[in-house]
């Protein structure tokens, strides 16, 4: 009798704990999603209904004029295409260099290996504003200032260490015996990596590439300081330049923000399963 009462008490406590955990998760999700939903609702309002004496969340009149205006009366399509090109170039550079570097760090034991990885970590600790001026002078000397290639190289300076750190864990999770078997069969080191290891860490590679792509897509400071013309500016800079001294187009800004996050949402929807597989694969080391 006492045992049954104890089990019922424990079961009731577990249910209460589950309810509290679900409520906490719901609050966190609501806190994260609410600004996006609010921006979407603002983008559907006419300009005269946005700034009012009484706050209204649901639009009284739904209109898409903000989307039409920002797409046809501004350089927003060019800004989006610049962001896409720079992001793809950054991901390509980080993937090629970062994959080889992280594989070498994971497989070889050389002098200064630990110090080099600590250096990569320390680089991420410094604020990006500290390297803006040296990077600006370097890009100007190389003739890469105000160019999409220069911007992609600038993004690589702070995203490549992240790529190497993440991929190092995925490569270390793959047993060395698989590569040794391929080497015995006549494969070279690069051949064993490409044919044996990379197919096993492709989920982690996709997850890391997505994180790098999001970082490059949303970057603002480097794009602001290293670009001066519309031909190479990215969308975060374009949105900031829409704010004038006596003008603050809330509707257009909200519409631009919604348009700019759509590619990220689509990318997550397409790569969700691969990202989950990759992150869970790197969580356990064999």
Automatic annotation (TrEMBL):
Q: Name one Pfam family in it.
A: BPD_transp_1
Is RNA-binding a UniProt keyword of this protein?
no
Q: Which SUPFAM superfamilies match?
A: MetI-like (SSF161098)
Q: Where are the transmembrane segments?
A: 20-41, 84-106, 118-139, 151-171, 192-217, 250-270
The UniProt keywords, alphabetically, are: Cell membrane, Membrane, Transmembrane, Transmembrane helix, Transport
Its domain of life reads Bacteria
Instruction: Tell me yes or no: is Transmembrane helix among this UniProt entry's keywords.
Output: yes
Stretches assigned to the ABC transmembrane type-1 domain: 80-271
The record's listing under InterPro entries reads: BP-dep_ABC_trans_perm, MetI-like, MetI-like_sf
Q: Which CDD domains match?
A: TM_PBP2
Question: Where in or outside the cell is it found?
Answer: Cell membrane
Membrane topology per the entry is: Multi-pass membrane protein
Entry's family note: Belongs to the binding-protein-dependent transport system permease family.
What protein name applies here?
Answer: Carbohydrate ABC transporter permease
């Amino acid at each position: 009798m006492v045992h049954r009462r104890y089990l019922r008490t424990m079961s009731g406590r577990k249910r209460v704990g589950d309810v509290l955990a679900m409520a906490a998760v719901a609050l966190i999700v609501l806190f994260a999603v609410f600004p996006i939903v609010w921006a979407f609702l603002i983008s559907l309002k006419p300009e005269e209904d946005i700034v009012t004496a009484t706050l209204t969340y649901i639009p009284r009149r739904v209109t898409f004029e903000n989307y039409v205006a920002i797409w046809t009366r501004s350089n927003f399509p060019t800004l989006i295409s610049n962001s896409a090109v720079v992001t793809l170039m950054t991901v390509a550079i980080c993937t090629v260099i970062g994959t080889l570097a992280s594989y070498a760090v994971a497989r070889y034991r050389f002098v200064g290996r630990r110090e080099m990885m600590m250096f990569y970590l320390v680089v991420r600790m410094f604020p990006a504003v500290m390297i803006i001026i040296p990077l600006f002078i370097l890009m100007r000397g190389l003739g890469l200032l105000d160019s999409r290639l220069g911007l992609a190289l600038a993004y690589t300076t702070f995203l490549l260490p992240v790529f190497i750190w993440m991929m190092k864990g995925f490569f270390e999770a793959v047993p060395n015996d698989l590569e040794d078997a391929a080497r015995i069969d006549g494969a070279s080191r690069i051949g064993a990596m490409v044919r044996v290891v990379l197919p096993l860490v492709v989920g982690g590679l996709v997850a890391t590439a997505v994180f790098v792509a999001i970082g490059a897509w949303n970057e603002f400071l480097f794009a602001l300081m290293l670009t001066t013309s519309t031909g190479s500016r990215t969308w975060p800079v374009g949105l900031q330049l829409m704010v004038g001294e006596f003008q603050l187009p809330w509707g257009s800004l909200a519409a631009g923000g919604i348009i700019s996050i759509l590619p990220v949402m689509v990318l997550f929807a397409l790569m969700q399963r691969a990202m989950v597989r990759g992150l869970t694969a790197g969580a356990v080391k064999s």
